[in-house]
């Protein structure tokens, strides 16, 4: 009489060779590194992945908006920037980029409104912003 050996091979979990999934923070860190190298397209890709994983993160939305602004994709940029200022922990630099978009589009009223909101945060670049507001 032969004993049957239970085949455990099918019941074991095989280790995956796939790399671990990146977190939103991982993507944001890579995006920040790309920004430092002025790699706007690479940074945008990383920050868009961060937003996909963490859609209600104000900073990630602001970064995507900023990078779309850099690429002159103003309508898309505006969507992310507006979301950024509507979320808890809003990122006040979003007001600056919205101001610059309005400036580029020739909308002085919106430009000044957004820049004034940004200036309330006491930014280091307030003199530059005031210069743009005054037509400089």
Describe the protein in words.
This protein has 136 residues and is mainly α. α2 runs antiparallel to α3 and α3 packs antiparallel against α4. The protein is elongated. The termini are far apart.
Short structural summary:
The protein has helices at residues 24-36, 40-53, 58-70, 74-86, 93-104, 108-119, 126-133.
For the sheet with most strands, the description reads:
none
What is the succession of H and E elements? HHHHHHH
Number of strands: 0
Q: Radius of gyration over alpha carbons?
A: 23 Å
Average pLDDT taken over every residue: 89
Strand content: under 5%
| Number of separate helices | 7
Report the uncertain regions: 3-10
Shape: elongated
């Amino acid at each position: 009489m032969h004993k049957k050996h239970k085949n455990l091979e099918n019941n074991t979990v095989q280790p995956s060779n796939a790399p671990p999934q990146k977190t939103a923070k991982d993507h944001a860190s890579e995006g920040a590194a790309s920004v430092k190298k002025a790699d706007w397209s690479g940074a945008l890709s990383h920050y868009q992945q961060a937003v996909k994983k963490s859609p209600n993160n104000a900073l990630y939305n602001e970064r995507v908006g900023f990078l779309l602004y850099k690429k002159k994709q103003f309508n898309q940029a505006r969507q992310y920037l507006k979301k950024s200022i509507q979320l808890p922990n809003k990122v006040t630099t979003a007001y600056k980029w919205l101001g610059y978009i309005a400036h580029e589009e020739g909308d002085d009223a919106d430009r000044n409104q957004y820049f004034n909101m940004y200036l309330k945060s006491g930014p280091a670049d307030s003199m530059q912003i005031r210069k743009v507001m005054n037509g400089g």
